[in-house]
Amino acid sequence: MGAAPMRYEAPRGMRDFYPEDMSARQAVFGAWRAAAELFGFLPYDACVVESLDLLKRKGGEEIVGQIYAFRDKSDRELALRPEMTPTLARMIAARQNSLALPLKWFAIAQCFRYERMSRGRKREHYQWNLDIVGADAMQAEAEVIACAAEALRQLGLGPQDVAIHLNSRALLAELLAGAGVPPDCHAATFLALDKRGKLDDAAINQLLAEAGLDAAAIAAVWKVMNIRTLAEAGALAGASSPSLAGLRNLLELLDNYGLAEMTQFDIGVIRGLGYYTGVVFEAFDCQRKFRAIFGGGRYDRLLSDLGGAALPAVGLGFGDVVIAELLADRGRLPAGPPEIACAVGYMTDAERLPALRAARNLRQAGLGADLALHPEKPKSFFGRVGRGGYREAVFLGPDDCARGVMRIKDLRLRSEREMPLPG
Ligand code: HAM
Fold first, then answer.
1. pLDDT > 70? residue 2
2. Would you place residue 226 in the very low, low, confident or very high pLDDT band (cuts 50, 70, 90)?
3. Taking all residues of the chain, what is their mean pLDDT, rounded to a whole number?
4. Cβ pair 79, 141 in contact under 8 A
5. Which residue's C-alpha comes closest to atom 4 of ligand 1?
6. pLDDT-derived band of residue 239, with 50, 70 and 90 as boundaries?
7. 383 near 363, Cβ under 8 Å?
């Protein structure tokens, strides 16, 4: 029996990025980075391997069951991070006495989750994380959301394409308490309600019952879920509700960022992570064809839960998968490999060193130059570079060297300029 044939595809749910896939990825990463920098966020990074202990939290969260965990050769329990937030919390706790607060940090982090494969969900994705730690003002929520909206704008997407849905777990807690759900059942109730859309109502009722809710409380919870407007929420929570005032304040701030059209209250946004304590939000394409584009919220207790100082925090995660699907759907996803400024070729071995010096000269001027590795006929060179990927081309023959010039052809404009050949 021969060995099983080698399989060349990446493991299920993991992605390879060939050069032709990289323009799209660079466009998304570029918009993320540019928006973060425009809003004054500083970059940070960490290793993808994290201690399993940090990532395991109280039960109920889907993400904990999706962790890729392993033991190293010293029997340490480790894992590939499924999200960046615990790592950020750990890094901040480690320097809590020396960091100047509030801090605004961003990262583009590769994350791994053993997900059931579906459209928009893979087992590995890159996630832009934007977090503000050490600020309890609603201004922090507004900055994070406005920064994400700026990234969308840079990708050519506006309020006609994307809607940001906002809610507040603090408001939900007030409403649930009013509905007779005791506070120690709230966390499990949130996680059950977050499954709406994925599970049917009967299955959610089952989860609510498991969370400790009786039939009357379950009926009251569904009444809360039917709230459509802030006014309706106010009628149930009372006009003096602080969390309602907070949401109104956030919507007003977002209006001043020019984002009124893109943002809306939505009682159905709960989020599937346990650590959120205040405002929660998720962005969707307006036609609701795709999964959430980004999601986040306020998590004021995560750092103290990890044993660090109590620090208020708010942030979001914005993955590269759904946004790429949406951009492709709109015909806005760049295709092909990133362009190289100039191809440099030569006819015979005698022009190899002049061509090398020409490439060196271009590179010193900051232009990308792809120097041919062998002499070739002009037809072969121009056929190759004409297939795309280059803006300009230089091909050196004996005549050019005799005249001491290089002719730089613009491949799109089909124009030509001459420069002295560097000696
Ligand atoms: P999350 O909602 O689990 O939040 O993920 C945030 C975003 O990451 C999603 O909206 C989606 O764009 C992307 N994403 C998540 N899982 C996958 C997957 N399996 N495949 C493709 N894309 C995915 C968090 O992770 C929080 N830690 C975000 C956060 C940061 N909250 C505060 N700071």
1. no
2. very high
3. 95
4. no
5. 317
6. confident
7. no
CB atoms within 10 A of CB 389: 17
Cβ pair 364, 376 in contact under 8 A: no
Q: Amino acid identity, residue 290?
A: F
Residue nearest to ligand 1 atom 20, measured at CA: 121
pLDDT tens digits for 62-87? Answer: 899 999 999 999 999 999 999 999 99
Distances (CA, A) of 50 to 91, 287, 379: 12, 37, 54
Q: State how far the Cα of 401 lies from the Cα of 129, in Å rounded to an integer.
A: 53
Q: Which residues line ligand 1 (CB under 6 A)?
A: 83, 85, 113, 115, 121-122, 125, 127, 129, 131, 273, 292-296, 299, 315-319, 321-322
First to last CA, the chain: 62
pLDDT (0 to 100) of residue 1: 58
Q: Which two tokens stand for residue 132?
A: 């503000």
DSSP run (H or E) holding 141: helix 138-154
CA 113 – ligand 1 centroid, Å: 10
Q: For a pocket test of ligand 1, which of 50, 321, 323 has the largest count of ligand atoms closer than 8 A to its C-beta?
A: 321
Q: Where are the beta strands (DSSP E) in 44-123?
A: 49-51, 68-71, 77-80, 103-112
pLDDT exceeds cutoff 80 at 59: no
Which tokens sit at 45?
């990074």
Amino acid found at 286: C
> 108 CA to middle of ligand 1, Å?
12
Surface-to-core class of residue 116, CB atoms within 10 Å of its CB (0-12 exposed, 13-18 middle, 19+ buried): exposed
